[in-house]
Each structure stands twice: as structure tokens, then as C-alpha cells.
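Protein in question quoted for reference:
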Amino acid sequence: MLSISKEFRFDAAHRLCRPELSPEENQALYGKCASLHGHSYTLQLTVSGELDASGMIINFTELKQLGKALILDRYDHANLNELPEYAEIPVTAENMVRHIFSTLSPVLSQKGLRLVQVRLYETPDSWATMTAEPAAQPS
């Protein structure tokens, strides 16, 4: 399988909380991360597909534009807790990669591409990864 990857950086704030819990219960569950704080995130997208007439799977510029329009324009310098997709779930790196994957995958699929992996670094040494299920093999 041939794939390419593109990396993005953005800064955003969040606090870990479950809306159904009291502030004290959230503090007990998430510790200091229950308070509003920020991260300098690094997002990596990996896409696979067939080479087109240009010899590329997708032009890096086009992948950059998609990532910017669908993710970065909403997430960069935002309070992530205020985004509708996190109204009822904690803004964890795990939930973020799930949402990013589900947002980008259908758009790339319409272009005949496959989103293989989304990796989100919350810090340089802490990240979450979502990987596509293996493609079905023809029988």
C-alpha cells in the first residue's frame, strides 16, 4: 500500500469534564486537567490511494487545504469544549481523533482515497492514533 502523510499544528484550549458530573466529581476523575488549559497539538493524517496522472495520490497542497478547511479552521485557537461535537463527551485526544477521522474519511473517500490513520499529539510524548480497519480483500 502506498500512502502519504501531512502534518499540521494548532493551538487550542480544553478542559476534561463529563457534563453529567459535578465539578468535584470531574476534579476527582481528571485531576488538574479538569481546569481549562491549552496544548500545542500536532495532527498527522495518512492517506492511501492510487497514483493519478500527476504521479501523486493527492497533491500535498490539496490535502493541506482539506485539513485546514475541515479541522484547523475550527480547532485552532478554539476552546474545544465549545464545539458541538464535544458537547456531550470529554475532549480527550481519543475522542478528538475519532471525530477527525469520521469527518475526513468520507470526504477523502469521495475522491477515491482512503484515510489510513489519524494521529494527534497532545504533547510531544503523548498521542492518540486511529487507524482504518484493513481493507477487505477480494475473494
Q: What stands out?
A: The mean pLDDT is 95. The chain has one domain: 3-11+38-131. The CA atoms of residues 35 and 121 lie 20 Å apart.
